[in-house]
Amino acid sequence: MVVAHDHRSDSVGLRLADHQPLFTKLQAGEMTYTTNAVKHYFAVTGGFVDVSARNITTVLADSAIRSEQINLQEAQKAVAAAQQALQSAPDQKTTLKIEAELRAALLMTKVAKKHQAHTY
Q: Residues 7, 29: contact at Cβ < 8 Å?
């Protein structure tokens, strides 16, 4: 089973088990999957999900980083840097790029914090 969380909330956006074949876009957010009763958390920046007729789910992510590989302090620094850079962005193209970097850094921070909460 794959569970993809909506990046705008903590609600479950996708649960796939005994599902009809499906191919759909994957939005940036947290992805959780469980194997042998162990949950694995990832920060995913987008991509696609494919569910075959044989009930095999494949996630084709633009990037996927395991929660335990995220350095929370570095992610928080990236958030602060992006927020500061937004203040002096010279044009719309730069603003859009910085906003994308900010969203990614916020996602990393959220996933890292959630993982740390599960490890204590």
A: yes
